[in-house]
Amino acid sequence: MAKAEKSIVENRKARHDYFIEDVMEAGIVLTGTEVKSLRLGRVNLRDSFARFIDGELYLFNCHVAPYEFGNRWNHDPYRNRKLLLHKKQIRELGQMVKQKGLTLVPLRLYFDTHGRVKLALAIARGKKEFDKRDSIASRDAQRQIERTMKQRFK
User: Fold this and answer.
1) Under 8 Å between Cβ of 6 and 113
2) Average pLDDT taken over every residue of the chain
């Protein structure tokens, strides 16, 4: 029987601040104490982003809290972490980001079925302030419709 994915953390602010165009799965290079800290759920993706350096993709500004029993082998909480994708995928992402003005935002960090840490990376376009207000208004309207339908069919 196969195990299901175990979610570690989700970046809920990303869906509020960006229009999500596409999502892809990427591996991430971590140290041992980082993985132990992730298993405890001590990570924050809120202000993190991905950027290209010398043809490789890195995750910036992701805070992984130091493992409390890690002593001298502990990691730097804000270090840049390399993301693992196929070379073709990296090339395509690089072209999209340069040409269309898109950005790469992490949506979610999780353990896959084999126990490896994976990152759901979104290709996103930034929202303006009025877009955010529109999405909040439509979400509230949808919620109100669901409430009235629920009351009607009771």
Assistant:
1) no
2) 87
